[in-house]
Specification:
The chain is α/β, with parallel strands linked by helices. It has two domains: 2-179, HUPs (Rossmann fold); 197-246, 3-Layer(aba) Sandwich (Rossmann fold). Helix content is 28%, strand content 27%. It has a seven-stranded parallel sheet, with helices on both faces. A three-stranded antiparallel sheet has the order 8-9-10. A two-stranded antiparallel ribbon has the order 2-3. β4, α2 and β5 form a beta-alpha-beta unit. It starts with a strand and ends in a 12-residue tail after the last helix.
Length: 250
Amino acid sequence: MTVLAVAEHRRGELRDVSYELLTVGRELAAAFDAEFHVAVVSGDVDRYAEDLNCEGVDVVHTVDYGEEFNHDVTVQALAQLAQRVDPRVIVAPHTVNGLDYAPALAERLDYPLVTDAVDLAVEEELVVTREMYGSKVETTIEVTGERALVTVRPAEWGPAQGVGDATTESADVSIDESAVRSRVTRFEEVADGDVDITDADVLVSVGRGIGEAENLDIVHDLADALGATVSASRPVVDNGWLPKNRQVGQ
């Protein structure tokens, strides 16, 4: 039995959530008395494999195909790998990329899919905790099947620590190029000085109650004093008072 975590990278660097997934996967593997495997698809996979060799990881599987994330490549590669290592649970990041491939992968493997997990536990079955209604309600889902694919919310677990002694294996997969329907052509940077609110530790968020754009000055002052980042609800963005990448709950 194995637990399989899927690492994520962008523009040549592993994303923080990859190391958080190592913590999640290690805990699940211990609970299931299973081996812990990690998969990384595309990019500088040999370097990524070295970085992913943290304490508790048994095997890192690499798929050397292309440089950046591709839906079709990822689904094909992970489906073939999963059929070989037979994971009890696959954990993937609840990110734009993770949400892109996870449903297709779950359908291909016939795994139940649970998204946006904020906690995981193993009792008689795998129990997944999710938040609903703007984090006002917590719900627990008991996965009664023998397999599951779970996307994990970033920043809910700490990153894995320590250097491990994992084996690195080049995954024995075959990519059908005729089924690869898209490719990355370029990246466009956000405006200078703007931020990714998902990376912020503290947000000061405003809504329609701010009244008018001029009142944002005091909000920015408060955010600066707190070392926080300003974010907003959709009405503020729709009014053009803050850019769309400052909107929470997209």
